[in-house]
């Protein structure tokens, strides 16, 4: 039987959207404790997270420092470690409110997936767990089979997310005007503005102000 075409697409950011927390620091601390990463990248990533909260370090630089923790690891090592870690580190922080929205979109015949600035291996287990259709993230560079700690291609920032979502929609024979996007952060404004149904999820202050002004839906993790 031929598969029915999707009636729409629902894109979800990952950290602080599908999850109630930011997965990067949690993964970073544990991979250091497990002895798979070097001390300096771990401390640099931790400093970056603190600097970002204080407004001293840009979001993209923090992301670059964070992936330095995976230098020297193969795709298989990273994937296996993530698979082992997901049930205890990440699964408990799935937002029940957002998961319920994912299930609603799936029941309505939507394609549902993740579009995130994080590397795809951060979200692979959640994609399997939630039965999602796709995930797009910031790919990491591998040379001779090991991670260099650099990004391969474009970082999945706001404009790149919008372009990627546009491509996914076109491949499904749809327009962004038939899509939803859920995010917690103002950095995702380009895609939020492009879809017919933007949803701010537990938004930080700047996105909350925009959502309230434009009367976008605001979805809180605990309702």
Q: What's the gist of this structure?
A:
With 223 residues, the protein is α/β, with parallel strands linked by helices. It has helices at residues 14-18, 23-33, 39-53, 59-67, 75-89, 96-107, 120-130, 158-171, 189-194, 205-214, and strands spanning 9-12, 111-115, 134-136, 140-143, 146-151, 179-183, 197-201, 217-219.
Low-confidence stretches: 39-57
Number of strands: 8
β-sheet strand percentage: 15-25%
End-to-end span in angstroms? 40 Å
Estimate the helix proportion, in percent.
40-55%
Radius of gyration: 17 Å
How many helical elements? 10
Helix/sheet category: alpha/beta
Query: Roughly what is the average pLDDT, rounded to an integer?
Result: 85
Give the strand line-up of the largest sheet: 3-2-1-6-7-8
Shape category: globular
Mind describing the biggest β-sheet?
A: 6 strands, parallel
Oligomer: single chain
- N-to-C SSE series? EHHHHHHEHEEEHEHEHE
